[in-house]
Structures are given as C-alpha cells and as structure tokens.
Amino acid sequence: MDITAERPDQGLAPSRLGAELAGLLETRIRAGEQPAGTLLPSERALSEQYGVSRATVRQALSELEAKHLIARRQGRGTTVLGPPSEAADLASLLAATPPEVRNAIELRRIVEPEIARLAAQRALPSDLVLLRRALETTSEHLDPEESVRRDVEFHHLLARASRNPLLPALMEFAAAQTEGERLASHRTVDRRRTSLAGHRAILEAVRTGDAEAARAAMDAHLAEVQEISTPGR
C-alpha cells in the first residue's frame, strides 16, 4: 500500500492519532520515500495531507525528533536525518564477521531479553503502533518464509523501541546468521502459532511498561523457539 495514501483512523483519541501519524511518517522515512537530507512538508501541508489537526502533526513530529529521525529548526523546516553513524559502523563490522550460528543464537539469548526490558521502559506511542501493526499482519497461516520475515520485523521494531541505535544493527546480524533456525521454528502451523503467542506476550508487557515481565516473556519466547527448532523435533 502506498504510505502517502494512508491516513490515521479519525476515530482515535488525539494522543493515539498523533502516535498513528508518527508511525506512518516513520514507515515512510525508513522505506526511503523521504531520504535523509530532504525536508518534510510543512505542518500545514502534513495536516491537510493526512486530515489531522496541526497539534496532532506537532505531536507526531515530536516523536520522530525523539527517535532522531528528523531535526526541526526554526525558519529552516524539518529535515530528515540519516541513521546514527555508530550503528552504521557496527553493522559494517558485523557484516564482516564470519558466520557462526551457535554464537548468533547465544547473542540473541543474552541481548534480546534486555532489549525487551528497555523497550518496556522507553517505547514511544508510535513504537507501540508499529509493533501492534506488525502482529496484526501476521498469522500462523502464512507460509514459513513470510512468517519468518514478519518475525524478524517484530524483533527489529522492538530493538528500535529500545532507543539504543546499536541494538537494531545487532538484531540484523543475528537474523542473518540464524535464518535456518528461524525457518525451522516456523515450519508448521503449530510452531508459527507458538512464536506468535510469544510475540503477543512480549508486546503486552512492553505496552503496559512492565520491564521485568517483558524481559521474562522474551527469555521464555527464545527458549521455546530454540527448543522447537532443534533438529529431530
């Protein structure tokens, strides 16, 4: 769907409407439709384009600014920013690392529960919108390859919600190194249902801001996924 044609649900509360708009704009920026260095339309233009008030636009822009996706300067407009250089440097370093599935799985078990804990503490409303949408567009009835793609997207969105720009790069690396194991954990309807249930438990803990519950839910999810993807099961 063309993101420029989407509009937030007008029946939402004002605070939710701003989060929905922030999610739409973030998706557009990350998809490259609004490249780094370009200017976003004015508040008035965004208000007219998406059918919302200028107060809602300002709320959405504040969230994008908090995520370091844009910079607002008086009299100069709103500029789209590129990814933090440290994250890009880390991604390059990890890309050059020889693949070792066992190490990547261990990395996930160490890092991802902490990502979930941080996300519960730091996620912005627009992060919750994107995570919820990611779950709404997945199902145990998807084919294994598409289910894995949605799985990777959910974990990557969670890493972004941690507000630490290094963690999404780590998750991209781990996803690339564990593709086979992930596919095994999504091979059957029952396995896909198990994975989806784990994601729902994680999101609920993040949504309610329960950091320890989010950490525990992620730890349980990864343990379960590792078990069902073990050869012979």
From TrEMBL:
Gene3D superfamilies assigned to the protein according to its UniProt record, in alphabetical order: GntR ligand-binding domain-like, Winged helix-like DNA-binding domain superfamily/Winged helix DNA-binding domain
Keywords tagged on the record: DNA-binding, Pyruvate, Transcription, Transcription regulation
Ranges where the HTH gntR-type domain occurs: 15-83
Record carries keyword Transcription regulation: yes
GO molecular function: DNA binding; DNA-binding transcription factor activity
UniProt xrefs under PANTHER family: GNTR FAMILY REGULATORY PROTEIN, TRANSCRIPTIONAL REGULATOR, GNTR FAMILY
Protein name in UniProt: GntR family transcriptional repressor for pyruvate dehydrogenase complex
Naturally occurring in which organism (per UniProt): Brachybacterium aquaticum
